[in-house]
Design brief:
There is one protein chain. The protein is mainly alpha-helical. It has helices at residues 8-12, 36-44, 56-75, 81-95, 114-132, 144-148, 154-190, 210-230, 255-267, 277-282, 285-311, 341-365, 375-399, 408-417, 422-429, 431-444, 448-455, 460-466, 469-472, and strands at residues 16-21, 24-29, 195-200, 203-209, 237-238, 272-273, 322-323, 405-406. Strands 1-2 form a two-stranded antiparallel ribbon. It is elongated, with a radius of gyration of 30 Å. The model has no long low-confidence stretch (mean pLDDT 92).
Length: 480
């Protein structure tokens, strides 16, 4: 979603309203639910072209925080019932997916997220004003700062909203990961009897089954299901009620605990108030750790996709042990060519996630004193990484993994041709004999088994027992 930024002269030529802030008067499109501060940010930050609306869960998180704050302010007697009702109505609209197109500020912005917070405050105020029967901009009846932002600062409302938005996105990420892990587990079972050569340093190693190879992919992804799910607790701790720097200025003494309790009810997750609100306002450690977990998952996915590309290489001059489902013609010049486009795309997503993690790391490090003003970049890159990973895993599962087939004959052919078979015979003929046989096989082109039989190094019945597939791919007693 790319936002077209109208100039002031263009706005003035169309239906508009004039709003006033600290810096003076500014025209805002008449139909806009945002106001003057959002308009300034819209004109100031023409950077990524990616607006807040690109991440619906962040908008929902903002609405949930504002709804909880209004409830707490009503409980302490500072917000009138009519204002509470209007704010709740507006927040519920946002939570249900309405008016998201009004969140137009660029994801990267100066001001530590103030533009995002004011975008939310103004949209909620103007939706609430219409609910109360007033025109947009009639802020004397419901004010973005005095009512919607009551007892809050960007410095506590915004990071709390990010955490709520991440929680809502977190479940989707885990679901996609679990489905992909299940797809690899299914292939583990399907390929349990396909004998092939394992490889180390891209050289022949020892036999294994294709099922064991795919089972390892399922296992490594399963580990990250547990670890990413465990990251959920990091996002529960919030600084809501700390206001500007964590001291709670301009908030009722009861407000923080009430607001967090209401937020838990609104978002459906048990939130908790940080023990040290000053520390929680400036520290980005939870985001760094969470981002590191997304990087870990990205690296694993990229490694798996590298393997899939190698195992399917060919079809005539590569490994050609598996077939990836064909998704599109692979060349504008080479007829018949089909490329592993899905794993390639996942590789590129992984590289982007690694880059995002570095950006988050630098942004988290660059906090000064009581605030980290780089939170907009942190929010943008974490949400982007989660969205990219979720989409990449769904794509990999649906358009690649579920359709993978095995070239059983090719896998067996490579096992029989491989010098790596000598490793299975090593305990029976000794390391020196095994080394000599391997070297002779390389020099003459003869097979390992052929040479062993020629020299009579092992009884043929024992040789057949050793070479049974089930005996080559699992630990077993060595009887000489």
């Amino acid at each position: 979603m790319i936002i077209d930024i109208p100039r002031q002269d263009e706005i003035l030529q169309k239906p508009h309203r004039i709003e006033k802030d600290l810096l003076g008067y500014l025209a805002v499109p008449e139909e806009a639910y945002y106001g003057v501060q959002t308009q300034r940010a819209l004109e100031n930050f023409v950077l990524t072209g990616v607006p807040l609306a690109h991440f619906p869960k962040l908008i929902v998180g903002l609405a949930m925080v504002k709804k909880a704050a209004a409830s707490a302010n009503f409980d302490t007697g500072h917000l009138e019932a009519k204002h509470l009702e209007a704010i709740h109505y507006a927040c519920d609209c946002l939570i249900n997916g309405q008016y998201h197109d009004q969140f137009v500020v660029d994801m990267i912005q100066g001001g530590a997220g103030t533009s995002t917070n004011m975008n939310a405050n103004e949209v909620i105020a103007n939706i609430g004003l219409e609910y109360l029967g007033y025109a947009k901009g009639a802020y004397e009846h419901l004010h973005p700062n005095n009512h919607v932002n009551m007892s809050q600062s960007t410095n506590d409302a915004y990071p709390t909203a990010i955490r709520v938005g991440l929680q809502l996105s977190h479940a989707e990420l885990v679901d996609s990961l679990a489905l992909l892990q299940g797809a690899f587990a299914s292939k583990r079972d399907e390929f349990h009897d396909v004998i092939k050569m394992g490889r180390t340093q891209l050289q022949d190693a020892v036999p294994m089954t294709l099922g064991q190879e795919f089972g390892a992919y399922a296992t490594t992804l399963g580990e990250d299901i547990e670890r990413i799910a465990g990251m959920y607790d990091l996002l529960r701790e919030v600084n809501l009620g700390g206001t500007a720097i964590g001291t709670g200025i301009n908030a009722d003494p009861q407000y923080a605990n009430l607001a967090v309790a209401h937020l838990s009810n609104v978002c459906g997750h048990p939130m908790r108030l940080a023990a040290d609100l000053i520390e929680a306002t400036s520290d980005m450690g939870a985001f760094v750790l969470f981002s590191g977990m997304t990087k870990r998952l990205a690296i694993k996915l990229s490694k798996i996709c590298n393997d899939l590309r190698l195992l399917s290489s060919g079809p005539r001059t590569g490994f050609n042990e598996i077939n990836l489902p064909a998704q599109q013609p692979g060349s504008s010049i080479m007829p018949g060519k089909v490329n592993p486009v899905i794993p390639e795309a996942v590789n590129q997503v992984a590289y982007q996630v690694v880059g995002n993690d570095m950006a988050i790391t630098m942004a988290a490090e660059n906090g000064q004193l009581q605030l980290n003003v780089m939170e907009p970049l942190i929010a943008y890159k974490i949400l982007e990484s989660m969205r990219l990973l979720r989409r990449a895993m769904d794509m990999l599962r649906e358009r690649c993994v579920v359709g993978i087939t095995a070239n059983r004959e090719r896998c067996l052919e490579l096992v029989n041709q491989s010098i790596g078979l000598i490793t299975a015979l090593n305990p029976y003929i000794g390391y020196d004999n095994a080394t000599r046989i391997a070297r002779t096989a390389l020099e003459t082109g003869k097979g390992v088994l052929e040479l062993v039989r020629e020299e009579g190094l092992i009884d043929d019945a024992l040789l057949q027992e050793i070479l049974k597939p089930e005996n080559m791919v699992n630990p077993r007693p060595i009887v000489i």
